[in-house]
Design brief:
alpha+beta; Alpha-Beta Plaits; 3-methyladenine DNA Glycosylase II, Chain A, domain 3; 10 helices; 2 domains; two-stranded antiparallel sheet; 37% helix
């Protein structure tokens, strides 16, 4: 009896095993057919472009990430050159993949912080105890006397994927050795202090202030702000006056003696160089 029972058990187990095997094979075949039928054809050029891109998904190109940009530029070659971190090198690779010729300016675009004031240079009305972000602080009046200076809470730092900007003594400072020009920091600053500038050389001259206060108020609020004295504009027409402050027109910028004279004549020494250490 026992032997007969074991044989029957083995027979039923064997049949169950065969049945499961057949079912598994059937399901596998169905899945294989479905994968072939439903397979989305990927343009090989899109895959090649994606491989050429830096893969940082910074969004500087205006798309959600590298994958979205790869699809877009494959469909519309006019979008070549939108990858700031990749620069001309990546643009050239994409053009080669698409069998196109591309001519770029070859000039990288990098951010400049239009503020020079460290903590000791600023006047504060009181202690700020709110949410420690520039966006939150900027929504309140009188966080610091100058309504146009760097708040120093680091929204720009949080936005940078390359560790290329830091808050040093209350001021955002860019590490140009690491900066890729992705534009994230310029978009993050609620006061619009960070401008993307074409760097025609490793270091660029700039007016490190955007205060629209009168010269007298700027003197009261900040030790190193532009007081709108127009001394620089008298030395070189590349310096132009905005609302109570001077700005540099980079389309006219060609380093020379008159630019050096303008920098030397600045009474608050707010005309400075920004860029890589030489």
């Amino acid at each position: 009896m026992i032997l007969t029972g074991l044989i029957d058990l083995w027979s039923s187990s064997w049949q169950a095993g065969v049945t499961m095997l057949v079912l598994a094979a059937g399901f596998a075949l169905v899945l294989l057919i479905a994968s072939i039928k439903l397979k989305v054809q990927v343009d090989p050029k899109v895959e090649q472009i994606l491989t050429a891109l830096p893969g940082v998904d910074c969004g500087a190109c205006g798309f959600a990430g590298c994958s979205a940009y790869a699809k877009a530029v494959a469909a519309n070659p006019e979008l070549i050159g939108k990858c700031a971190p990749g620069g001309d090198n990546v643009s050239g690779k994409i053009a080669e993949i698409l069998s196109l010729a591309v001519s770029g300016s070859g000039v990288p675009v990098r951010p400049i912080v239009h503020c020079k004031a460290h903590t000791g240079d600023k006047t504060f009305f009181g202690q700020y105890d709110g949410i420690p972000t520039c966006t939150s602080a900027n929504a309140l009046a009188n966080v610091q006397a100058c309504k146009f200076g760097c708040l120093g809470f680091g929204d720009c730092v949080a936005s940078c994927k390359f560790d290329a900007i830091h808050i040093i003594d209350g001021l955002a400072v860019i590490d140009y050795e690491k900066c890729t020009g992705c534009t994230a920091c310029s978009k993050a600053c609620p006061r619009g202090l960070i401008e993307m500038v074409p760097f025609t050389s490793n270091v660029m001259m700039t007016v490190a202030c955007k205060s629209q206060e009168s010269g007298k108020d700027t003197k009261d609020f900040c030790k190193v702000g532009c007081i709108g004295c127009k001394m620089c504009t008298k030395k070189n027409d590349a310096f132009e006056m905005a609302t109570n402050y001077a700005r540099l027109n980079y389309e006219k910028y060609q380093p020379g003696e008159s630019f050096t004279e303008a920098m030397e004549k600045c009474p608050t020494k707010v005309i400075v160089y920004r860029g890589k250490k030489t």
